[in-house]
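Practice problem: predict the structure.
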Amino acid sequence: YCPSIEDKINRFADRERHQLFVEPEGRYTNEIYVNGFSSSLPEDVQYKALRKVVGFEDMKMFRPGYAIEYDFFPPTQLDISLETKLVKGLFFAGQINGTTGYEEAGCQGLMAGINAYKFTRNEEPLVIKRSEGYIGVLIDDLVNKGTNEPYRMFTSRAEYRILLRQDNADLRLTPIAKSIGMKHMDDRMERVKQKLDNKKAIEKYFEKYSIDPDVINSRLSELGSSPIKQKVRLKSVLSRPNISVPTLLEVLPEVKAHLAQYDEETINLAEVSLKYEGYIKREQEMVDKMNRLEQVKLTDTVNYHDLVSLSLEAREKLTEIKPKTIGQASRISGVSPSDVSVLLVHMGR
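Answer:
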């Protein structure tokens, strides 16, 4: 979401400068797009303003900027499946839910379409968890928190960013696609299984392979890393800052020969898993804890106003959003940890 330049002047009046990005429109044109200067001001005002930018004094304007205004329905009126709470069988996706951006609209359309189909077959909806994909983060945010301005899916919105990596997207999402009946998935599932098996094999090799100080110390010194005093596992050397698999292979021909049987993608995946093992494990423990809360279901018939131990704000928010699980309830703005404890007691946990 990029506010117009006139909005920025109003909202960030205390700033003395604003950064613009000059982006070429193509390889064989002199036309550029001025990123950061979107505007709906009159054409003559845009022209005069652009010519005041240093370097743009003699610029020519091919097309003026413009703005699109659209209405939306507060997405807190939706279930996590993107089905409206008021009209059964009606699913919303895209800008109507308060989002902006092609990917944001596309992923909602995908989920709404899948769940509309499942609705016609009386099947449980497909829900991507926050720990499984950014689609899950986006929909969970919209349904539980709503939005006051056009919503963009920034990675900073996800609390499990170490798990939601580009290198493991196929491992996270391919089994889900297979589980909902996508056809011609056998080859892809076999590729996922092979990738996982190879990743584990590489990790095991690094955990067992010992390296001698005489072999590695000169390279460590070049990289500004402390020398080792005795034989250590290759995994411990890889876990150091500024040390990567390619830098190790330069002085370890035996290891290079062994890894030649694996593709670069899988080696990179194993490297990330080894280097950030502690962080990944800690984040996975957080996910497991949240998943336990997701197992505790809440029904639409719960009268939260009867639970006087809940805060007044929690009662109002829970009544409005009607979360399906304790986990979902815990992510609603205004629902505190103590409110979650009250709900767990009420549900017999």
